[in-house]
């Protein structure tokens, strides 16, 4: 107990006449923190009981369907061999088509995940094969120099090769956004607006992914939608302000537009924002040396398109204002 009090007094009080003592630098438990952070994804990646029970239910359902199909074929053969053969051929064809669908979807989803992994460690030679543009491959062979470093090769690859695909994707985004803005502006109901917006966004997503050499299946499209919406949800307020810009989201512009034109403009801008997110996720490398696409020119294109569809795009001035 006395030793504890002595240690406590040494830590608490300071004698100015005593010799200076070098401060002891405490080691920060960085290794423990990193170890704890490394264990978090492992703990979070454990399957939940709900998913386990869902998997068990699906397996039982498949077993029940298989047993029912076997009994159906056996009963059909008892009635007549022709009927049994027809049922066997039909079910066999159905199972084969289902297997082809599952394998194709798994392959397309795997390719999409590989593209996201390649964005972390880009290699121009591997990325060229994934883009599926023979003309760009020839152009890169003419540009590439053996004395370039890895960073220089990535820089030139983005500026000279990927930027060309970006221009094609931006033209698609501008086109689909203008179509969505025009369709929503002339749409009679809000339900039709939602259907049209979803339809145009779906087509735009497929076209943009195809520009970068990605073919989307059902599950890969669902995964891409999920990632796009996640990115939009986690975008900060400052990023939204920069993306949309105070120029065309200002109160002055919105008060000048008519109701239908304002809805069309909002639908077009939302479609464009979705398109740019798909563009970011489909690119072989993230934006680093190329400038991210903006919305300034897109706004002018949308307003010009709306002026052709909606004659009274701007609100009419009241009689008091005209006087």
TrEMBL record:
Determine if Metal-binding is one of this entry's keywords: no
Record the organism.
Idiomarina seosinensis
- TM spans (from-to): 53-74, 80-103
Protein name per Swiss-Prot or TrEMBL: TIGR01620 family protein
Its ancestry begins with:
Bacteria, Pseudomonadati, Pseudomonadota, Gammaproteobacteria, Alteromonadales
Q: InterPro entries from the xrefs?
A: DUF697, UPF0283
Which keywords fit this entry according to its UniProt record?
Cell inner membrane, Cell membrane, Membrane, Transmembrane, Transmembrane helix
Superkingdom per UniProt: Bacteria
What is stated as this protein's family in its record?
Answer: Belongs to the UPF0283 family.
One GO cellular component, as annotated: plasma membrane
Q: Which PANTHER family match?
A: UPF0283 MEMBRANE PROTEIN YCJF
